[in-house]
Amino acid sequence: MRFLRKKRVFALLFVLFVLLLFYNSDWLGKWIYPIHYETDIALSAQSYGVDPLLVASIIRVETNFNPDKLSKKGAIGLMQLMPDTAEWIVKKAGYAEETSQLLHRADVNIEVGAWYLKSLYNQFENNRYAVLAAYNAGPGNTRKWLDNGTWDGTLKNIGQIPFGETRHYVQRVLYYYDKYAELYADKFTTAPLSR
């Protein structure tokens, strides 16, 4: 009899806990979809006029906030910057030459990645879908797809992107962006995004 009473109490406590989690879904959502390096993301995004939630979404998809991740292709850091791309950014942005050697640091990687995102926004006339495709497949491939009509640069026709990895990448970044916008809109000032 005593055993059954303990089971009931445990079951009641469990049900109350689950109800509390669903009642306070922001807490649960932030636990499932955390953003790390918030200060670095906010500062770099503000410096370059890009959406901090988009930066966070890219980091989530690229590395899940693991600064030590190194891709099979050699991409470095939280935002998975290719060394050649990072060197180009360092020269174009006027960063100190040693910046390339500091890409493993979260703050440096986020800043260089945010600058690159701004550059892509300029290249693709603020079309965030094209920006995301270019971040993954490269601006040359994305420009070719847009220019020859392979893809029109819209979310509706994202299935036209010829690289499956890039299609999936854009969809995943947008998924996390929507989650972050829902959970963290009050915490970050977001830059307006076109299209």
UniProtKB/TrEMBL annotation:
Gene3D superfamilies: 1.10.530.10
CDD domains per record: LT_Slt70-like
All copies of domain Transglycosylase SLT, residue ranges: 45-151
InterPro entries found in the cross-reference section: Lysozyme-like_dom_sf, Transglycosylase_SLT_dom_1
Designated name of the protein: Lytic transglycosylase domain-containing protein
